[in-house]
Design goal:
Elements: E1 2-11, E2 14-24, E3 29-33, H1 40-48, E4 55-60, E5 63-64, H2 70-75, E6 78-81, H3 93-99, H4 107-120, H5 122-126, H6 137-149, E7 155-159, H7 167-184, E8 187-192, H8 195-201, E9 204-209, E10 212-218, H9 219-224, H10 226-232
Parallel strand pairs: 3-8, 3-9, 6-7, 7-8
Antiparallel strand pairs: 1-2, 1-4, 4-5, 9-10
The structure holds adenosine-5'-triphosphate.
Amino acid sequence: MLRLEGVHAYYGRIHALKGVSLEVREGHICCLIGANGAGKSTTLMTISGITPIASGTVTYQGQPIHRVSPEEIVRRGIVQVPEGRRIFPNLTVQENLMLGAYLQRDKAEKLSALERSFSMFPILRERRRQPGGTLSGGEQQMLAIARALMGTPRLLLLDEPSLGLAPLIVERIMGIIRQIRDERGATILLVEQNAQAALDLSDYGYVIETGEVVLEDSARRLLEDPRVREAYLG
Ligand code: ATP
């Protein structure tokens, strides 16, 4: 469904991605694990069309998308949940959700997407008139995910959904991600520093170090790999 081949990206003189190649198969949950600053977020940003690539290709459903605008990429079904949630704290939960459907013109469609969100996240229905900023960290992460689902993604990109959350809440969020794949049929690319949680959930994984993919395998095998265990699973 999605393929990166030899992707290089820079921030000024910083060579953030040094020839990243990876593939995400339709219906899979795939994860990209690695330390702080390894290039995980940058990889997602190149797929979303926000960070331009210097060379290489990004192909989605057989079409190159690395010169396509971020808005058109969303239109084609790739939606990103950014690191740190980035919800609007002063807007209500419902207003935050409606922003996720900005490409949808049909009001009835928007409302049915809202209804689907509320049935997946009953807590958001309860809190729909509250400002987003009053939610707990876990609820804000749910809101950020639900907002992305309002755009009915075919490929959902998640940047560190476990960041700053307690272990029980992380488990809950990971369960929700699995549910999105199973019930909505979305394909998922998940970026995580929490390698254990990400690999437990995923079908396939990539390990990235200083801008390069150094290891890839089924998540099950990565969990057993001594290099992964030593460096990422403590
Ligand atoms: P984190 O979990 O901290 O977000 P990451 O693996 O997602 O880490 P990236 O954010 O992709 O890593 O960063 C890759 C490299 O690019 C790092 O060296 C980082 O310092 C640098 N970098 C990221 N964003 C910028 C930016 N806006 N300007 C300059 N350098 C940046």
